[in-house]
Amino acid sequence: QSAQFLCMKEKNPWHRPVTIIITVIGVIAIVALVTVAVLQNWPLSQKYKYGIVLDAGSSHTALYIYEWPAEKDNNTGRVEQTHSCTVKGPGISSYASAPQKAGESLTECMQEAVHRVPKKRHHETPLYLGATAGMRLLNVQNSSASNKVFQAVDEALREFPFAFQGARILSGQEEGAFGWVTVNYLDDRLRQGLETNGALDLGGASTQISFVSSNYDGSESPSNSVNFRLYGNDYNLYTHSFLCYGKDQALRMTLAQQTRSGPTSILDPCFHDGYSETKEYSKLYDSPCVSDRKPQEAPSTYIHTGKGNFHQCQEIVKSVFNFTHCQYSQCSFNGIFQPHLQGPFGAFSAYYFVMNFLKLTNTSIPLEQVKEKLAHYCATPWTQIQKQYPNVKHKYLAEYCFSGTYILTLLTEGYNFTSESYPNIKFIKEIKGSDAGWTLGYMLNLTNMIPAEAPDSPPLPHAGYISIVTVIAVLLFVLFILSMRPFWPQCSKEPQII
Ligand SMILES: Nc1ncnc2c1ncn2[C@@H]1O[C@H](COP(=O)(O)OP(=O)(O)OP(=O)(O)O)[C@@H](O)[C@H]1O
Asked: What does the entry list as the binding residues for ATP (predicted)?
């Protein structure tokens, strides 16, 4: 005979209908609780919204696509650039004589945008086109041509399935202010109310300086003042845009300075020794920045040769700035008011392209040493430069000596940066994957994505909320199981002999 310990054969209480019903209801309730908590939050964070901005600059047009989680519309800090596309060909202002082509030039990048933005979001995605100094100049020179370009661009953009919000010229003040918003937004300085960074933007046809200075309240030269209330903080921003002081127009001005008498050739210290190209007078003077200086009697062409001398180049560059009059307490140049420089600055666009090529983005190198390095670069013969950089675009390569000299002169002589304040400048292309420039700030403003007041923050982030609901649900379940203890199946204490 074998003795075995067996459970008493009792009626299993789990099989009682009441217990089964209560258990099922309990499980369903807990599953429903967790599901609701997850569904409340999770699917929303999966949805993104999009915005598209076309930056129609003087030298080229670029398209930017921005993306942000749908539920964060009014909380910001989360808008990111997901894609950019450079339009082939020149800026839209160059199509004054064939406006239709300005619209057509945008097609390729726009088609890319159609593929990049999910189809179901197309109709609600705002599309903006902002034109800067190139179109400002064309508008001054020939407003009917400028209108025709806009008409063509308008028609072309309406063909796409996005919510087109119109094409317009940004004022210099807007360009400066939105560039400042972009860099401070991306650096998360606005939401946190931290000290802001100034913004230095160097384009092809204009240049902007924008910063907050504690001794500027907008009363002196009010036209340079922009007031913002962002996330509950008030900002009194100083901003100025210098039309014609972008690097392409500034180069024109230095060439105009050297061709005042209408010579057949010039020996330009801003170009490398050995550089020589025949250029047309009509093209040089075809801009409102220099058109009034066209020599009376000039041949149709001039030979532009280089001699590579940084110091002489700096003297010519200085001559395009006017330092003689200032009706304010202090000025930068051309009689424009500028308060005391304050805080760190982000310098982008051509500031970055040029200083990056020249390997001079490290501003902890003393300013005098930076000048020496540039002087050495300018003195390098053109043949050697061409051999050293066979893949760099010819126009850029020929101009880097001028461009570097212009940047240092603009910063030090123009804006009054000194050896002490120069290290406060950071040459940047992008911040956290988004390009520095006016486009993001422009879109944030037009879509009201930066609230005036600080948004109420939820007591918990949604991940924390889900975790707490899940933990509570599990605890409830365990408690429920334990409360069922009296009904658990019991083993008989007496062994049974079979
Ligand atoms: N890699 C590069 N090296 C040198 N210069 C460059 C490079 N890429 C662009 N540039 C030049 O830098 C300048 C600024 O370019 P950006 O695109 O910021 O200006 P833009 O928007 O065309 O001008 P604006 O803002 O004045 O209308 C232009 O003159 C452009 O030709």
From this structure: 204-208
